[in-house]
Design a protein that fits this description.
The protein is mostly helical. Helix content is 55%, strand content 0%.
């Protein structure tokens, strides 16, 4: 009789769980690039409609791309928000207001 073994610790970080995407990696990367090229002028839903996926699917691809980039940099998460927050803080500090 065959026995199945399970990883009782749960999925490890960086391990994909679930089914494989029906969309090729190049298509997903291109969709993410289109969203980023819009630089906040278009919503996930608007860009997603152009490429034929849902807004949630595109949002997921963008998040995955951010996580992969963070792992490649050796950090735990996206750095963009932290950098943006630091620049706002520096501007407020330079003005001497201390208010962010």
């Amino acid at each position: 009789m065959d026995t199945l073994t399970m990883d009782l610790d749960g999925p490890r970080k960086g391990v994909l769980v679930g089914r494989r995407s029906p969309y090729p990696e190049e298509f997903r990367n291109d969709a993410v690039a289109l969203y980023r090229a819009a630089a906040g002028r278009r919503t996930y839903a608007a860009v997603a409609a152009d490429v034929g996926v849902t807004g949630e699917t595109l949002r997921s691809w963008v998040r995955q791309a951010d996580e992969q980039a963070a792992r490649a940099r050796g950090t735990d998460g996206p750095v963009e928000g932290r950098d943006e927050e630091l620049s706002v803080f520096r501007v407020a500090t330079d003005r001497g207001t201390g208010v962010v």
